[in-house]
Amino acid sequence: MITKSKRQTIPRVIMIPRKTFFWGVSAVPGGHKKDESIPLLHILRDYLKVGDKEREITRILNNGQILVDGRKIKQRRYAAGFMDIISIPATKKQYRVLYDKRGKLRPFEESESSSQIKLKKVKGKYTTKGGKTQLLLHDGQNFITSDESIKPGDVIAVHVPDKKIESIIKLQPGTKAFLTGGSHVGTQAVIKNIEISKSSGSNLIHMEEGFSTISDYVFPISGGKFSYQVPEKTGVD
Description:
single chain, five-stranded antiparallel sheet, mainly beta, Structural Genomics Hypothetical 15.5 Kd Protein In mrcA-pckA Intergenic Region, Chain A
């Protein structure tokens, strides 16, 4: 099984120096797609400078010193993606993986209070045999709820690691959103109106800032009683 990749073949969302390391690791299959995630090795070694050697990062992970969404992760190839929360208890630092304005995934420094909330976009919705609602989330996880008002495109703010829903952010006019793709990736805008597609394609979202994008790229972050403040300082030197 191939576990390493040449630096030139690593997904474009990963930003590490091309001439520093010839080899990089391949992410293990998980909740996030390969081209929408970063292996933990690269986050810890190349972004956060927790260690400068793969062996050193492996040791740190094996010792249970790294948490992702409140859980100890020991796999250096673990695929961390958009909105994942990486915590390093030894340094009392927390980071959230977000897109920058170049479309690259980066760890952004997060406050301790905000790091307890994970935002998850609803990609699909199904009804189980017991009559409850099962949500398919953007990070590949499933969530069972009795709240039938949640729809695809909405975001649930979940407390980690106990996965308790703190709030629901609706995909609707007036909601502030973070853009995860397109020419405005990495920026924030407010939804003005939603143009429903008459075909199988994505809905078109018109923003108050004067541009439009497809619903796939719109990730609600603030609406109703809940407001998430996107951090500005990255963990990249």
